[in-house]
Design goal:
The protein is an all-alpha fold and 148 residues long. The protein folds into two domains: 77 residues, 2-Layer Sandwich (Alpha-Beta Plaits); 40 residues, cAMP-dependent Protein Kinase, Chain A (Up-down Bundle), CATH 1.20.890. It is built from seven helices and no strands. It is found in: Cell projection, Cilium.
Length: 148
């Protein structure tokens, strides 16, 4: 009877589905969640998300896949168009950072040193938002097509 009750509860209102992408994401997320039963979580892991937001074994507030196979299956169910790629680690991560992150960050930090703003963290955050090379390009004038 647990699964039908769980299905009814999970579909009783809006929900938010997200994909967590990081090295060792599953173990990290499960640690943040705490035990499945929120009542147990309140006793043994009082700072866990389920202890804080859950109410009982059924209404435990959050879900986390138990292993990679389950995560992959659940991701494809909720997000059928998503391609699951491995998170780069080691040399692959360094190569990615050097190619895609460092040029923009170095330019921003250089400009930060030249400007010497009162709040450098906020200044750099704003600069990175404005100078993100992956930001979509917006067309500020309408494109008019000639009729055929």
């Amino acid at each position: 009877m647990f699964f039908p009750n769980l299905t009814a509860y999970m579909s009783s209102g809006p929900l938010v589905a997200m994909i967590l992408a990081r090295h060792k994401a599953i173990s990290y997320w499960l640690e943040l969640l705490g035990p499945n039963n929120s009542l147990v979580a309140k006793e043994t892991h009082p700072d866990s998300l389920r202890a804080i937001y859950g109410t009982d074994d059924l209404r435990n507030a959050l879900h986390g896949s138990n292993d990679f196979a389950a995560a992959e299956r659940e991701i494809h169910f909720m997000f059928p168009e998503v391609i699951v790629e491995p998170i780069p680690i080691g040399q692959a991560a360094k190569d990615y950072l050097n190619l895609h992150i460092m040029p923009t960050l170095l330019e921003g930090l250089t400009e930060l040193c030249k400007q010497k703003p009162a709040d450098p963290l906020i200044w750099l955050a704003d600069w990175l938002l404005k100078n993100n090379p992956n930001k979509p390009k917006l067309c500020h004038h309408p494109i008019v097509e000639e009729p055929y």
